[in-house]
Each structure stands twice: as C-alpha cells, then as structure tokens.
C-alpha cells in the first residue's frame, strides 16, 4: 500500500457489530454457512479512479502468511457498491484455497477471534489485465502498484 494513498469510506450492511452473519460464513472446511459474498458500499474515492478492486484477508490465519479469502478486480470506476454478483467485466480472482470468488470465514475451532480485513482499492488503471487464476499474492502485488486510495472495514469471526 503506498504510504501517501488517500482514504475513503467502506461499509458493509452485512457486518453486525463487526461480526459475520451465518449467511456470509464459508460452506467448507468444517463450516456450514451460506458463503454469500459480503455486500459492500463505498464513497469518497478520488477523481481519476479508473477501476476498483476488492480483497478480504485473514491476518490471523494459522499459516504464517495469512489467508486471502476474496480478490476481485476490474470493477468499473462508476461502482459505489458491490452486491451478491460482480458487475460485467469484473474479474473474480482465486483465493488461497485455490477457489474462484468469495470464501467466507471459517477459523479453526477454539482459535482466537480472526480479523478479516476487507479493502476496496481505487486504482489508476481500468484493468489489471490479470487472469482469474492469478495467485493471490501476485494479484495483490500487481494491484498494489496502481492504488490511488483505499477504504477498509474489518469483520471478526470465531468458532
């Protein structure tokens, strides 16, 4: 993230007191949620934004390097919200489980509460020109070179 990147506001009507409802939890890895992507809303992105990207990262995953749960890019510059489906032309990237699209939280049973950082990036390019199968670390590195501004919210989950 560029040190001088501007900030804007991101919220989710799905996060209740910062917690994920069952509909947004994973439906794999021992969890039985609905795996519905979080709805997001944002405002205050800078003029000059040419596209947006969205990520969800579990910084508390017991992997040594965290866990990417959601990466999407090439959302149109006119977007101010994201619902259950991506807009036409947007790319649904691959998460750290090797699955395309959103993967809801499912922290290990008994582990401390996990913090899931949801970030919307305003980018200076209309397209990252990356295929959906791009590994998450490569996608994050690539989008990092195009950030004009960003907004974040955090969800918490524990079992």
UniProtKB/TrEMBL annotation:
Classification via SUPFAM superfamilies: PEBP-like
Domain of life: Bacteria
InterPro entries: PEBP, PEBP-like_sf, YbhB_YbcL/LppC-like
Family, similarity comment: Belongs to the UPF0098 family.
Protein name per UniProt: Phosphatidylethanolamine-binding protein
């Amino acid at each position: 993230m560029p040190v001088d990147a501007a900030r804007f506001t991101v919220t989710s009507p799905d996060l209740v007191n910062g917690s994920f409802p069952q509909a947004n939890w994973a439906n794999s890895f021992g969890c039985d949620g609905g795996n519905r992507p979080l709805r997001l809303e944002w405002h205050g992105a800078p003029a000059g934004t040419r596209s947006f990207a969205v990520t969800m990262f579990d910084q508390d995953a017991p992997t040594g390097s965290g866990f990417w749960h959601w990466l999407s890019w090439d959302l149109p510059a006119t977007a101010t919200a994201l619902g259950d489906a991506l807009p036409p032309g947007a790319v649904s990237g691959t998460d750290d489980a090797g699955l395309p699209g959103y993967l809801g939280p499912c922290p290990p049973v008994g582990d401390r509460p996990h913090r899931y950082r949801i970030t919307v990036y305003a980018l200076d390019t209309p397209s990252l020109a990356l295929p959906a199968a791009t590994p998450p670390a490569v996608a994050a590195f690539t989008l990092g070179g195009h950030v004009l501004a960003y907004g974040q919210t955090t969800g918490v989950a524990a079992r």
